Amino acid sequence: MKIVGLTGGIGSGKSKALTFFKSKGIPCYQADLAGHKVLNQNPEVKAKVQAYFGSEIYTETGLDRKALGKKVFNNQEALEFLNGIVHPAVRLDFQNFVQQQQAPFIVSEVAILFENQGKKKYDKIILLTAPENVRIQRVVARDGISETEVRQRMQKQWPDAQKIPLADYVIDNTDWKTTENELERIYKELLR
User: Fold this and answer.
1) Residues 6+ apart with CB under 8 A from 78
2) Do 108 and 94 touch, CB atoms closer than 8 A?
3) For a designed S-S bond to 21, which of 26, 35, 103, 136 qualifies (C-beta 3.0 to 4.6 A apart)?
4) Partners of 172 in beta bridges
5) How far is the CA of 124 from the CAs of 57, 98, 118, 140, in angstroms?
6) Model pTM greater than 0.85?
7) Dist CA 111 CA 107 (whole Å)
8) What 8-state DSSP symbol labels residue 125?
9) Which residues are paired to 108 by β-bridges?
10) CA-CA distance, 89 to 99, in Å (whole number)?
């Protein structure tokens, strides 16, 4: 079974592309959602996060992601600590997911695939790109955050120009119909 990585910068359309593969019956894994699940449900991870960031980082409904974001986005040490406990737990969750699948391939959506030296873990990698201004507009509309906040998040990710040579497939996701046609072509190729 092939493992296909689906990546791209914030606002590039990864989640929408993932729905394409889901509609084809392909098992799909979302690393960001898995990270949220681990942060809220894994007792060991929760204990470490509370010890480092304070018990108030969790409310009765779970992790206060906005408060955590404020603590890590401009603090490299805190971000590295968080990644150091979340990423191994997500990797284990992904391995369990893969073992449960029976399909010609699976797709794993990972925002910072290249940044985390993840290229070796995938048989093929699909990179979605889009002009920066388009991505910013999408994220502002989707998340209700400021352009400045989007730009801060973008700074944590490699630019497309750095990722393009490392990807097996590159899709400019400016127009969804064109993207969908490219995804269909890649889907058929991956089935072979």
Assistant:
1) 52, 53, 71, 72
2) yes
3) 26
4) 129
5) 37, 15, 11, 30
6) yes
7) 13
8) E
9) 5, 29
10) 16
The residue to which tokens 């990864």 are assigned = 14
- Give burial (CB, 10 Å; 0-12/13-18/19+) of 119: middle
**DSSP secondary structure letters along 130-174:** --HHHHHHHHHHHH---HHHHHHHHTTS--HHHHGGG-SEEEETT
Token pair 């990546």 in the structure block, residue: 7
3 Rama sector, left if φ>0, alpha if ψ -120 to 50, beta otherwise: beta
Give the whole-angstrom CA distance, residue 18 versus residue 4.
11
DSSP secondary structure letter of residue 192? -
Q: Which has more confidence, 188 or 149?
A: 188
Burial class (CB within 10 angstroms; exposed 0-12, middle 13-18, buried 19+) of 116: middle
- Answer yes or no: is pLDDT of 73 > 80: no
